[in-house]
Design goal:
- With 170 residues, the protein is an alpha/beta fold.
- 52% of the residues lie in helices and 16% in strands.
- The protein is built from seven helices and five strands, in the order βαβαβαβαβααα.
- The protein has a five-stranded parallel sheet, with helices on both faces.
- It is globular, with a radius of gyration of 18 Å.
């Protein structure tokens, strides 16, 4: 099965980026995760991005904060889809990361999810891969049905016990 690369600029991004890994695991998608700084170790970064296709990656999910160059640099080198995950930052709340990732020049697109939206990045990667994998598409449909059923269960519970009791149980 196609691989997804998950890369982040710092291990402090791991709690967020692990959400992408959790989704990929749940959907049975092979992935590799690593920490690489485009700024602090450019040679290692270039080797990672240049060899990603050869290693079987079909999508890269790249998380980055502040200047957030990692997703754009991946997209400049890797010929297939890159999904950027802007990290929430202490200085500007992640808006700096978001702007850095979405403001790519023509010809270097980076699909971008919400600030700290790594779970959606995992789902988006799965949807990209599912365009050529019928079994994965079936698993995605089942995942969506599971999400729907969770909402229906919560609505039924709310209707049966009322909002005050529901709030107490949250």
């Amino acid at each position: 099965m196609a691989k997804v690369g998950i890369v982040m600029g710092s291990d402090s991004d791991m709690p967020i980026m692990s959400k992408a890994a959790d989704i990929l695991e749940e959907l049975g998608i092979d992935f590799e995760m690593t920490v690489i700084s485009a700024h602090r170790e450019p040679d290692e970064f270039f080797q990672y991005a240049k060899s990603a296709e050869e290693r079987g990656y079909k999508v890269i999910i790249a998380g980055a904060g502040k200047a957030a160059h990692l997703p754009g640099m991946c997209a400049a080198i890797f010929p297939m889809p890159v999904i950027g995950v802007p990290m929430k930052t202490s200085d500007l709340g992640g808006v700096d990361s978001l702007y850095s990732i979405v403001q790519m020049p023509t010809g270097i697109p980076v699909a971008t999810v919400a600030i700290n939206g790594a779970a959606n990045a995992g789902i988006l990667a799965a949807k990209i891969l599912a365009t050529s994998d019928a079994a994965l598409l079936d698993r995605l449909k089942a995942y969506s049905e599971k999400l729907k059923n969770q909402v229906v269960e919560k609505a039924d519970k709310l209707a049966s016990i009322g909002y005050k009791e529901y709030l107490k149980q949250m």
